Amino acid sequence: MSDRGYYEVLGVSKGASDDEIKSAYRKLAIKYHPDKNKGDKEAEEKFKEATEAYEVLRDAQKRAAYDQFGKAGVNAGAGGGYGAGAYTDFSDIFGDFGDIFSEFFGGGGGGGSRGGGRRSGPQRGSDLRYNLEVSLEDAALGKEYKIEIPRLETCVDCSGSGASKGSSPTVCPDCSGTGQVRRTQGFFSVTTTCPRCKGKGKVISNPCKTCKGEGLTEKRRTIHIKIPAGVESGSRLKVSGEGESGPNGGPSGDLYVVTHIKKHPTFERQGNDLIVQKTISLSMACLGGEIEVPSIDGKTINLKIPEGTESGQIFRLKGHGIPYLGSYGKGDQHVIIKVEIPKKLSKKQKELMEEFARESGEKVGSGGKSKLFFR
């Protein structure tokens, strides 16, 4: 056995959390598991080394003793680390990962997902995700959408049993209906998905022709979704019970609608505020006036432009932005002014501008032409 420290063996820092330690050991156990590396003595030693390290670091008292005294602090009463007192039941560490070892023992996948085996007994159906494009107007005002989704539903021909009419599933003789079998090798034992029934706990001699023994068939359903005012890109709306039907009579999963707000030709959204640009003439910028500004609800707002307004100046229209989702109030609408400089002037306009320049003490009239000299 290596003299390396336990933290080094697992590849974690001394301050690693329990979850980090568990995750690190899980990766090493899968990589060096003897059943995956038959005849490889080096892999077997690394597996034992990782197991010994995890056995200590997963226990708060042993870890504290190890941190203070090293291996001597934990081996004195531990029976020599890996061996009789070692961690041999993998159901704890791998219980939440859907039979990780099934990938090299030949079993099916975990429950609740399409394809692969499912554990025996009622299982909750898979959740579904639907990406919905929403216009900025609908995000601001709210709207009901009608969407069509494909999902797995209980087979009506066999009522979800998977067996054809007149027959029924029987208990799997290999796992006695548990959906799992235990294999013991040397110092450890591993619980894996039963390869015969693929975790279902039952075998079907005469499968239903409609669902081919799965108990579920794919259907397309139309669902009405109420999009509330104030949603933004990435908002998740949960529709309970509209996911896939659960295997073996289990409850249905949920449907999650994720909104994606489409780009608008006029408005730019920043949080709950709206940004819009409005072009005014040079004369209005100088003399002031009133303009009409579009709002997201399709109406127009009258905005007074004061004398001497500059290009880039911003005016705020309070409460004319996007509603706050699930709350009261709205954001604001900001109007950015752009002053348009005329490229061509009539004779009268030019005379008036020249008069304005003289009154201002400016020298103008070069026509924009200039000569550049280089040396």
Automatic annotation (TrEMBL):
It is found in: Cytoplasm. Its cofactor is Zn(2+). SUPFAM superfamilies: Chaperone J-domain, DnaJ/Hsp40 cysteine-rich domain, HSP40/DnaJ peptide-binding domain. GO terms for biological process: DNA replication; protein refolding; response to heat. Keywords: Chaperone, Cytoplasm, DNA replication, Metal-binding, Repeat, Stress response, Zinc, Zinc-finger. Zn(2+) 2 binds at C172, C175, C194, C197. Residues 5-70 form the J domain. Belongs to the DnaJ family. NCBIfam families: DnaJ_bact, PRK10767.1, PRK14286.1. Homodimer. This is Chaperone protein DnaJ. It comes from Leptospira brenneri. The lineage of its organism: Bacteria, Pseudomonadati, Spirochaetota, Spirochaetia, Leptospirales. The gene is dnaJ.
